[in-house]
Amino acid sequence: MSNEVLNPLISAQTQLKTACENLNLDSAIYELLKEPERVIEVSIPVKMDDGTVQVFKGYRSAHSTAVGPSKGGIRFHPQVNLDEVKTLSMWMTFKCCVTGIPYGGGKGGIAVDPSKLSQGELERLSRGFIRKTYKYLGENIDIPAPDVGTNAQIMSWMIDEYITIKGEHLNGVITGKPIVFGGSKGRTEATGLGVAIIARETFKSIGKDLKGSKVAVQGFGNVGSFVVKYLEELGAKVVAVSEYHPSKGTYAIYKDSGLSFEELSSSMKEHRMLKNIENSKEISMDDFWSLNIDLIVPAALENAISAKEAKLIKADIIVEAANGPITLEADEILNKENIVVVPDILANSGGVTVSYFEWVQNLYGYYWEEEEIAKKQENAMVTAFENVLEIKDGYKVSFREATYMFSVKKVAEVMKLRGWY
Q: What Cα–Cα distance (Å) separates residue 140 from each residue in 41, 164, 236, 314?
């Protein structure tokens, strides 16, 4: 375990290099894409409620603008650091390409535990981030969105600060806003819905039916909760869910007859954790990963499945809802065991796809109904899956390698046309 590569940037660069080699691309492609085009590090002073001043470290990375403006979330989390933000922006480039939306990858973050800030402190921090970075943001430059630890309210403060500084309404500079403030219907649940769609298509591709399958979901935040909701609607049975609580760490619950979205949501609302659910029992994380089930969906943070967890897994399929949840070593172990792994840049691309729809609606000032958005998202994701599956079968590679190959090839073609190499 001590020698295992846990730096996600090294993982992303390795995945990129493999794709370039599989496609026999010019070495310039890897050189142009292995690092972001631009990275900003800022110090954000915030006056706290007790009158003291704390300074928070913030970052924004624009990985590639070959295909279009950079696009990606802003996360508030204590472990946010430069390499993580650079990596997430790189993954965003390939994620955007996979569903064919005209963006490059961006990502931002602040090293902070948002649960320890008051509402006023959180607002001042959010506005402070924009004051430090607004020169590098714009509807056709770099477009942030919510991520881990941020939400529609934080996006509202940020867009208000941007509008105040610029002196004009430019709602398309930030997505993931509340619907009444230029947000898109279907955005909140988009990532979870997309994961469920990709899970359904993956089962189909190997001759299995998602309906009636047994599933474990790691994480019950915004993404994980909607994964449960839509998998349930598609007829799957979610038998285990794990979650994190500050007082007890990571834990998991199991219910053989299936955990419903409704009872899980009610429990979180009432207790702020998963407890007192009828006929459920708490299990260890080792037992969680070892379950005899059909599908595991990691929907928390990166490096959730290291070599240790990979050796325990018995599921046939893993669909990555989180960004970078599987380490390089774990990925090798899973491949050797013939476990089908669908990568994050395909599986969780529903969020950025609907963010793109929000941006388009902002630019045109015309808004679609939720049914239309869900249909557009499903079409985009099914097409993306079919494109990746064709490469996977044609080159006899894994889903991860095929997804990177599809996206890297597209970026490479645009860079060639633009004369970048």
A: 21, 18, 40, 45
Rounded Cα gap, residues 36 and 103, in angstroms: 14
Angle, CA 134 vertex, CA 133 and CA 139 arms, to 5°: 125
Closest to 94 in 3D by CA, of 323, 298, 321, 396:
323
In 164-316 the beta strands, taken as DSSP E runs, fall at: 214-218, 237-245, 249-254, 281-283, 295-298
CA distance 274 to 220: 9
Place of tokens 């834990």: 251
Whole-model pTM over 0.90: yes
> What are the pLDDT tens digits along the chain (421 aa)?
456 768 889 999 999 999 999 999 999 999 999 999 999 999 999 999 999 999 999 999 999 999 999 999 999 999 999 999 999 999 999 999 999 999 999 999 999 999 999 999 999 999 999 999 999 999 999 999 999 999 999 999 999 999 999 999 999 999 999 999 999 999 999 999 999 999 999 999 999 999 999 999 999 999 999 999 999 999 999 999 999 888 888 999 999 999 999 999 999 998 888 988 999 999 999 999 999 999 999 999 889 999 999 999 999 999 999 999 999 999 999 999 999 999 999 999 999 999 999 999 999 999 999 999 999 999 999 999 999 999 999 999 999 999 999 999 999 999 999 999 9
Count of other CB atoms within 10 angstroms of residue 185? 20
| Pairing verdict, β 317-319 and 340-342 | parallel
- Say how many C-beta atoms besides its own lie within 10 A of residue 43's C-beta: 10
Residues noted as catalytic: 107
Instruction: Please give the helix or strand (H or E) that residue 29 lies within, else none.
Output: helix 27-33
Amino acid at 211: K
The Cα angle at residue 306 between residues 301 and 309, in degrees rounded to 5: 105
214 bridge partner residues: 237
Nearest to 68, CA basis, from 360, 349, 343, 405: 360
The length of the chain is: 421
